[in-house]
Design a protein that fits this description.
Length: 535
């Protein structure tokens, strides 16, 4: 009986047994470098681990590392050994590690992992896709050093106690998985076996996060140097399980050169620009946010936005209300001010006060000409256009985009998937584009910051930057949640925060508010959960 066989635990495992298991399996033989970045405990050590490199960019970084004289096989050794360490740490009860190796460098990582696991005394089986003799470079060397006889992938039959290491394709897949791979994915899923994925679960597109025919559901994914878009865009995020970023030693200067401005949305991207309140602050110095109300039968959305803007730090918040809704709004407002703004003439008079510097238009406002007229009248101010506001331009958004086209970026658009498709039907219909790609094209066209909402909200700007948000709980999918988000962004805009950073901070703070409010939240309790960033 091998050392691995002595730990027949439940798959969730007793991680506390790992320290003893580490000694038994002689992991010191592996000389594994310390993991930096987002490791098993989720700790973030360096901002680089928030970068997102596309598979193509990561491939260029690999090539640049080789050109600079770095030993490519040495990088593969570190990657494969890190995979072995993760497997032993997370699945100490495995009776057999089954390593599925593909026809490229991902397969090479698998052969290194298989050899490392066998060296610890664990039972290891290897199954390969295509003829291993066709492997080249470092992957061929990894195969030659792995003494474990392999079998064809289609020969694999799950056994009780198997743990899968998926090293078939990784992040570079851009075509539908072959039938042989799809069949093995199905077998593993039906057997309920745990999967450790190398770089990305096979079957996922590393650029878009979409499933290409079939994909493993991983317990844990270990990737190298940075995450890829497929780790954070849905459905990829769900299929990756926990994600570990392991530094295999490519110099940061090389990674930085290939970075394309894509990152995970965290306070590191915008906290330095958050407004702060000094001792001499006056309410008007903290900005004046105006939220437009709908008619008497649809006033609640505006009040949610207004409350959120106030909690986000705006010094003064006013609801600009049609006359017929004044009484309804007045009966439910305290700290938020109220002003009758019935038509364009009244709005023009309101805009004569330059202190009215930021606006939210759309929540509960109504779709139509009035929304279009009001939005265009605000072309020189900072505007969050949400819900009915964006839908009002679905027939022809060009006047909106042209109105906000000059100077600093002042317009923030917050469409969900349906609203995005109405504003940008040609972009939304491109099945080859990722959500990041679509947001990039749309923001350049609109001369606006785009908050493309969803469980994987993308914040993009005309300058090429894009952030993917990952902290939003599923409980945010409730009526009024978007109204609260629009108000948070508006409140930050009112305080002078640049539009891109205001949008990104608003989305993240919105997610944190949802986390605080917990399951069963409503839009009202969500607004109560808005807090300043603890700096």
């Amino acid at each position: 009986m091998t050392a691995c066989h002595t730990f027949q635990h439940n798959w969730k495992g007793n991680i506390c047994a790992y320290a003893h298991y580490f000694t038994i399996c002689h992991l010191s033989m592996l000389s594994i470098p310390r993991c930096r970045g987002i490791c098993f405990d989720g700790g973030m050590k360096r901002d680089r681990e928030n970068w997102l490199l596309t598979p193509a960019a990561m491939g260029r970084a690999d090539q640049a590392a080789a050109r600079s004289g770095i030993d490519s096989f040495g990088l593969m050794e570190k990657a494969g050994r890190a995979v072995a360490a993760a497997a032993l740490r997370l699945l100490p009860g495995a009776l057999r590690f089954v390593v599925l190796c593909g026809p490229g460098n991902n397969g090479g990582d698998g052969y290194v992992a298989a050899r490392a696991l066998a060296d610890t005394g664990c039972e290891v089986a290897v199954f390969f896709l295509d003829d291993p003799a066709r492997l080249k470079g470092s992957a061929s060397l990894a195969l030659s050093l792995c003494a474990i006889p392999g079998e064809k992938l289609e020969c694999y039959e799950p056994q009780q106690g198997d743990a899968i290491i998926d090293a078939i394709f990784g992040a570079g897949l851009d075509r539908t998985v072959p039938d042989i791979v799809a069949a093995v994915i199905a077998k593993v899923g039906e057997a309920g076996l745990p999967v450790i994925a190398v770089d990305l679960p096979s079957g996922l597109d590393g650029r878009t996060g979409r499933v290409l025919g079939a994909s493993f559901q991983a317990l844990h994914t270990i990737t190298f140097m940075t995450r890829k878009p497929g780790h954070v865009l849905l459905p990829g995020r769900k299929l990756c399980g926990s994600v570990e970023v392991f530094d295999i030693g490519i110099p940061e200067r090389i990674i930085a050169h290939e970075a394309e401005g894509f990152r995970v949305n965290t306070p590191a991207a915008w906290s330095h620009l958050l407004p702060s309140v000094d001792l001499e602050a006056h309410k008007f110095r903290r900005g004046h946010l105006t939220v437009f109300s709908g008619p008497a039968t649809a006033t609640g959305a505006a009040r949610l936005s207004a409350t959120a803007g106030l909690k986000a730090g705006a010094g003064v918040v006013t609801i600009a209300s049609p006359v017929d809704a004044l009484q309804t709004n007045a009966s439910q407002l305290t700290a938020v001010m109220l002003k009758a703004v019935e038509d364009l003439s009244a709005l023009g008079a309101y805009l004569e006060d330059a202190r009215h510097n930021a606006f939210v238009l759309g929540p509960g406002f109504g779709v139509g000409q009035k929304a279009r007229d009001f939005a265009l009248a605000l072309k020189d101010r900072r505007l969050v256009l949400d819900a009915d506001g964006t839908t009002s331009f679905r027939e022809d958004p060009r006047p909106l985009f042209e109105a906000f086209g000059g100077g600093e970026t002042r317009l923030v658009l917050t469409p969900h998937e349906g609203e995005f498709a109405r504003l940008f039907p040609d972009i939304a219909s491109d099945t080859n584009a990722s959500k990041i790609d679509m947001a990039h094209i749309a923001t350049a066209r609109a001369h606006a910051i785009l908050v493309y909402k969803g469980a994987d909200t993308v914040i993009a700007g005309p300058d090429g930057r894009a952030l993917v948000n990952t902290n939003a709980p599923s409980s945010l999918a409730t009526a009024g949640s978007g109204d609260v988000l629009a108000g948070i962004i508006g409140g930050l805009l009112a305080q002078g925060m640049p539009a891109f950073e205001a949008a990104a901070a608003g989305v993240w703070l919105h997610g944190e508010a949802g986390r605080r409010a917990g399951e069963g939240l409503t839009a009202e309790t969500l607004a109560d959960g808005i807090r300043p960033l603890d700096r």
